[in-house]
């Protein structure tokens, strides 16, 4: 029996419009970590750049060009979702915090993303689970993350479904970075003391990477996908008349979940 597809989220088009209207699309990502004693949970937050609703990042023409000339090609347009994506370096702390069991400081996949989209006058808070993909060696963690993401996908066309691959999707996200940003994935370990020389001679700052399968850079490159469970919009576009809504994904037994909208006092 196949799992039912999730319903389209009622907030998605509005958030997307606000992101398109806004001059920037960075957000604050909050994760939960353990402190050094492993006894206390502590919050951790940092700014990241939104990379579109998975699996459809807005592709730069140079990314399409690189995918075509290097023989990867593009995945057929078969899926859409309400899941938000960004990219990161596996060596950064947030990855260990999100991936259960992968590091000393892991605490769980629950995250919160906060956007202040000033041009639209709205704050958006997205609470959900984050999943990390892109480990080229595969393994159970990669498989489990893909399965969780799959649960949030909707099929928009059967045409070419058999040709769609996870590997090409991660490569597409990698291609959508400039060569210098691709090179940042083979810089010395982020967050390590500069006084400690990297052991690996391939790790140097400021490298440009044209090859979409550069092994040192791809070893560290990851795509993070957030599957929302609760979304809140605070509308401050008219300060005399603020407004606030939440949408909560309510699981309905075996049925696909449904989004429940509630207007709140701001
Ligand atoms: C404007 C801006 C955009 C950023 N975009 C990202 C991003 O997309 N992904 C990322 O991992 N870090 C990004 N960073 C860096 C993070 O804020 C942070 O310094 C880094 O990820 C290390 O955080 P961590 O050790 O808590 O994982 C960005 C920083 C700024 C200021």
Automatic annotation (TrEMBL):
Fetch the InterPro entries from UniProt: Pyridox_Oxase_Alr4036_FMN-bd, Split_barrel_FMN-bd
Annotated stretches, region: Disordered: 181-215
Molecular function terms from GO: FMN binding
Record-annotated Pyridoxamine 5'-phosphate oxidase Alr4036 family FMN-binding domain positions: 9-133
One Pfam family of this chain: Pyridox_oxase_2
* Database matches in PANTHER family: AGL049CP, PYRIDOXAMINE 5'-PHOSPHATE OXIDASE ALR4036 FAMILY FMN-BINDING DOMAIN-CONTAINING PROTEIN
Could you identify this protein by its name?
Pyridoxamine 5'-phosphate oxidase Alr4036 family FMN-binding domain-containing protein
Task: Supply the source organism for this entry.
Answer: Aspergillus cristatus
């Amino acid at each position: 029996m196949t799992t039912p597809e999730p319903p389209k989220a009622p907030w998605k088009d509005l958030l997307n419009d606000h992101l398109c209207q806004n001059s920037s699309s960075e957000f604050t990502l909050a994760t939960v970590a353990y402190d050094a004693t492993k006894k206390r949970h502590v919050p951790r937050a940092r700014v990241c750049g939104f990379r579109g609703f998975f699996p459809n990042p807005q592709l730069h023409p140079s990314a399409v060009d690189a995918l075509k000339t290097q023989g990867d090609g593009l995945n057929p347009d078969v899926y859409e979702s309400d899941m938000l994506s960004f990219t990161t370096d596996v060596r950064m702390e947030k990855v260990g915090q999100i991936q259960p069991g992968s590091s000393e400081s892991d605490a769980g996949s629950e995250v919160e993303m906060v956007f202040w989209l000033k041009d639209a006058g709205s704050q958006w808070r997205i609470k959900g689970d984050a999943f990390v993909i892109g480990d080229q060696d595969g393994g159970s963690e990669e498989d489990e993350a893909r399965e969780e993401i799959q649960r949030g996908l909707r099929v928009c066309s059967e045409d070419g479904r058999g040709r769609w691959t996870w590997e090409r999707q991660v490569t597409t996200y990698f291609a959508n970075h400039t060569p210098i940003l691709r090179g940042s994935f083979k810089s010395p370990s982020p967050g390590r003391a500069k006084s400690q020389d990297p052991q690996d001679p391939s790790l140097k700052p400021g490298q440009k990477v044209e090859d979409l399968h550069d092994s040192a850079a791809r070893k560290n490159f990851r795509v993070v996908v957030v599957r929302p469970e609760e979304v809140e919009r605070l509308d401050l576009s008219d300060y005399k008349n603020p407004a606030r809504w939440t949408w909560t994904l309510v699981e309905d037994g075996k049925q696909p979940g449904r989004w429940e909208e509630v207007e709140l006092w701001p």
